[in-house]
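WARN no homologs supplied; continuing
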Amino acid sequence: MVIKFNAELYSVVSFVHRTPGNLRAFVQVKMRGLKSGAFAEHRFASTDSVEKISLDDQDMEFLYKDGTDYHFMNVENYEQIHLSEELLGDNVNYLTPQLKVKVTFFEERPISIELPAAIIMTVMETEPGLKSASVSNVGKPATMETGLVVTVPPFINQGEKIRVSTTDGEYLERA
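OK structure emitted
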């Protein structure tokens, strides 16, 4: 659920309804700001009211980067929009051409994007792999096509495609 609180939009992560003894009931809410991405907690009294916001999600495809703007195309009607680097935040590290994402709109304005759980990226630069290397806890840094640096196992070479988690930027497997 997305709510409007203190003139900002928040996504509710979790909530707990409590009734402590002789005191009045309240709802403890943990929420994430859609603009800042920062987490906040607030205690709402049972008499408080908040405005529930309706959002519109659209499937879009990332096309290209132009300076600090990132261009997306709606896969249904082929309309194109551009989003700024500051709106996208750290998500820019995972945007590869033709990547399908969900763009969330509020009052016909894009406010955030949702990436897939994992994406396939190409290793652009890393130390040469070792032939005798096997899976171990030791890793080496690898620079991806977007500039993201990921720690990979020693057997990964330059030019290989790997699957990377978009939640924490960790190496998952070879693609």
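The domain at 2-52 is CATH 2.30.30.30 (SH3 type barrels.).
OK
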